[in-house]
Write a structure and sequence with these properties.
Blueprint (H helix, E strand, L loop, with lengths): L5 E6 L6 H7 L2 E2 L6 H9 L5 E6 L5 E8 L4 E2 L9 E2 L1 E13 H6 L7 H4 L5 E4 L1 H11 L1
Parallel strand pairs: 1-3
Antiparallel strand pairs: 1-8, 2-7, 3-4, 4-7, 5-6
Length: 137
């Protein structure tokens, strides 16, 4: 059985929010134009779990989505270097986990969200994923 990987993707809620994803039922994650973020999209596989993070105004993790496809050509551009994956909502967090919560948790100090805050698609370790779920209870 394949190992599940964990990720965090950022979105500005005024552009595309958790509620938009829930209402749509699924979407392709497009618009990524950073090489490191693109590599993470290329690594994602169906079944991987993804935190949805509202950036800019709220700065909080609000829900969990699941990757439903491997990476494929971003349909919003003809440039073949850029890819998307499809995701679907799994569940909202019982309580959003703020960036302040993450930074205040000692075991999350090495999380990409803290170290590489501008990256729009980030890996999350299983331990980080579980810790965030515990904070959200």
């Amino acid at each position: 059985m394949r190992k599940i990987n964990y990720w965090l993707i950022k979105t500005e809620p005024n552009q595309y929010s958790w509620d938009d994803l829930v209402n749509d039922g699924s979407t392709y994650w497009d618009g990524v134009r950073n090489y490191a973020a693109r590599q993470h999209l290329n690594t994602m596989q169906p079944g991987d779990q993804v935190f949805i993070y509202h950036s800019m105004s709220a700065t909080e993790i609000v829900g969990i989505a699941e990757v439903t496809t491997s990476a494929y050509q971003d349909p919003t551009t003809h440039d073949t270097r850029w890819v998307v994956v499809d995701i679907k909502p799994v569940k909202p967090l019982a309580k959003p986990v703020t960036l302040q919560d993450v930074k205040a948790t000692k075991s999350l100090q090495n999380m990409a969200l803290v170290r590489i805050s501008r990256l729009s698609v980030q890996p999350v370790t299983k331990q980080e994923f579980d810790t965030i779920l515990k904070i959200a209870e």
